[in-house]
Amino acid sequence: MPARNGAIVEARGIHKHFGALHVLKGVDLTVRERELVFVIGPSGSGKSTLLRCLNRLEEPSSGAITVDGIDMLDRRTDINKARQRIGMVFQSFNLYPHMTALGNVALALRRVQGLPRAAAEAGARQALERVHLADRAGHYPGQLSGGQQQRVAIARAIALEPRVMLFDEPTSSLDPELVGGVLAAMRELRESGMTMVVVSHEMGFARAAADRVVFMDAGRIVEEGPPEAIFGNPQQERTRAFIGQITRH
Amino acid sequence: MSNWDRFLDSFFNARVAAEYLPKIIEGFWLTILLALCIILTGVAAGLALAVLRSLGIRVLNWAIIFLVDLFRALPPLVVIALLYFGLPAAGLSLSGFAAAWLSLSLVLMAFTEEIFWAGITAVPKGQWEAARSTGLGFLDTFGMVVLPQAVRMVIPPLTNRTIAITKGTALASVVAVQEILGAAQAGVSFSFNPTPLTLGALAYLVLFLPVVILGRWVETRFAWKR
C-alpha cells in the first residue's frame, strides 16, 4: 500500500490484547513526513504499546500498519530490513554495556548494513558528532552519565538513517539536570527534518517543538490537535483532567 | 618411638616420598590432561545446550532439561561406574580415562548449561529490543549482544563449578586411572606407608591453588568497565 498524502506512518484500527487485558482498542494514527507527533496520556493508557507496535516490537492483535510504504504486519515483509527505517529510543537507554559508545553505534552498521569495520566506525563517529559526543566514542556506557547514554542511544538509531524516529519516554529515567541535553539533541534532530513520534511528558518541549499532540486514555485516542489547542483549550473532559493534573505541579 | 615420630614416619617419610614422587608426578600430569579434556568438552557442550535452549523449541527444551537434571542429580562417581562397569555389558568398553572424561564432561555440561542459561535469561529484555529495533536478526542479537553479556555475568559461578567438578578427577582412581590419587593409593599399598597420600595432597594444592587464583583473575579481567 503506497503512502498517501505524504504519510510516513499509517496505523489503522490497531488492537492489542495482553491475555485478558485489552490495551489498544482500535487506534488510528497517521504521521506525515517531517512531522513531530507527541503522544501523552496517563500510565497504562497504551501509548508505549502503540509506539512498540509501529516497529513490531509488539505484535498487534489486529489492524494495519504501514511505515514508509512497507506493510509492517505482512508475514512476507523482511522485518529486520523494515526496522532499519524506524529508529527507536528507549526509556532505559538499553546501550550494550560490553561495547564502547562507538561500538554501540557501529554494530548495526556492520551487521545489518554490512559495512566494513572502517566505514561503520566512520559512520558511527559521524552519528556521535551529531549528538555532540564524538569525544566520548571510546567510553563504555557505565562511564557515561544517563544523559550521555541516551544521546549515544539516539546516535545508534540515527546512524542507520531512519525515515522516522520513535522515542519511548526518552527523558523519564534521567535526573532533571540531564534532561536538557537529550531534549537539545532531539530538537536538533527535529530541525534536520526528521519525522518523530515521541511518547513523553516533557510539556515544555511539546509546546515548543510538537506539530501535533495526541492524548490517549484507556487504549483509545481521546483527542488530538496542535499543542496550543490540547494544552490551552482541550475539548474533552478527560483531556482537561489530565492536562490539569500534569500542569498543576 | 614417640607418637610424634610415628606421625612423622607415617606421613612425612623421606625414603617413601623419594621413592614414590616420580609416580605422583606422572599422576599430576595425567590429572592435568584429564582436567583439561573435561573442561574443554564439558563447558563447550554446556554452552552449546544453553544456546540450543534459547532457540525456544519446546520439545528440544524438554529433552535438554531432562538431560541436564539427570546429570545434576546423579553423583559423578555413579556415572563413572555406570559407564566403566556397565557399558562393557552392552559390548562397548571404555578405558578408565575415557570413562572418567566422558562422565565428568556430562556432569560439567549439565551444570554449565544451567549457569549459561541463567546468564542468558538475566540479560535484560531491553537489550534484545534495542538490538532488534536496529534491524539485527535473532542470531546476531544473540551472538553479539546477549551472549557476551551472559558469559561475563556467569564467569564467577562458572569458574567455581568448573573447579569443583575438575577436582572430581580424583574419582577416576576408582576406575584404575593412575592420576594423582590413584598413584598415591598405589604407593600406599606398596609401601605400607601413607606418605604418598601426603604427596598427593600437596600435588592437588600445587595444581588447584593456581587455578583458584586464575579464576579470581579471570573474574576481574572479564568485568566490563563501569
From TrEMBL, chain A:
Keywords from the UniProt entry: Amino-acid transport, ATP-binding, Cell membrane, Membrane, Nucleotide-binding, Transport
Record family assignment: Belongs to the ABC transporter superfamily.
UniProt xrefs under SMART domains: AAA
Listed InterPro entries: AAA+_ATPase, ABC_ATPase_HisP-typ, ABC_transporter-like_ATP-bd, ABC_transporter-like_CS, MetN_ABC_transporter-like, P-loop_NTPase
Membrane topology: Peripheral membrane protein
Name of the featured protein: ABC transporter, ATP-binding protein (Cluster 3, basic aa/glutamine/opines)
Pfam families: ABC_tran (PF00005)
Major site of localization recorded for this protein: membrane
